[in-house]
Predict the structure.
Amino acid sequence: MKLAFVFPGQGSQSVGMMAGFADVKPVRDTFSEASELLGEDLWSMVENGPAEVLNQTTNTQPLMLVAGIAVFRAWIDAGGQGPDLLAGHSLGEYSALVAADAMNFSDTVPLVRFRAQSMQDAVPAGTGAMAAVLGLDDDGVLAACDEASEGAEIAEAANFNAPGQVVVAGQKAAVERAVEAAKSRGARRAMLLPMSAPSHCTLMKPAAELLANELGKVQIQMPKVPVIHNESVSVANNTDELRQALVRQVFKPVRWAETIAKLNESGVTHIVECGPGKVLAGLNKRIGGDAQTIALVDANTLNETVSALRGDQ
């Protein structure tokens, strides 16, 4: 058995998303640790919301990091097998690096809050947007973006999530035009997403520059478990490459479909989605491959999966 862990990013958040882990000590301890680092009650935020607060980039990013690491720690505490490979969708890459002992949790929580604030500040609130395009191939989405981009207003493919599922980012007006252009090209569905900053497009270059400076202050070591990076779909050879991957990731597309294909090519038999919800499990099913994806949605699922995979060894 060869095991990979994958961590979700923005878009998987929801009020009450950690309710199924409420009685799991490593989960609550992780949230308490992060709450002390940021000076606010993160557990209350995920339990009570409201959704508008949860969906703010500056809250969503640290919350998703904490949730992913909390579930990962619970897995290890329950006697679960350690991963052979790691990856994370967008922000989830930070969770993967913490799980791989490349970055300290105590450093990464405030770093991710800084990343989120930089991304939010790069584009004034209400002027940027992201949209999901379903049922249209990658070339069709790229053509729709080209048609929608006018002058300084750009729409770009931001997330290649799965065949027929691409996310577009840019100025709100351009993204809205891209939605209509995608529909005219035969998209089954295209709609704006509840995101307060247009991630993974060139509008994020100012944020990337700020992040590069901040990353220089954070201790990073080579991961103890290989981490596949979003932007390159490869493993960094040294810590400088790792830092550069995190900087480029801010304004380059997430190549998730290729990442999952790489895990399959690497002989992974089981992919465990470590964090709230099962967005990645749904994407992985669309991407295909021989590996089985399991989403750890609550304590029962976690314990059952630990036991089931022990039987596979």
Observations:
- The first helix runs from residue 25 to 38.
- The chain has a mean pLDDT of 95.
- The first strand starts at residue 3 and ends at 7.
- Residues 17 and 146 are 37 Å apart (CA to CA).
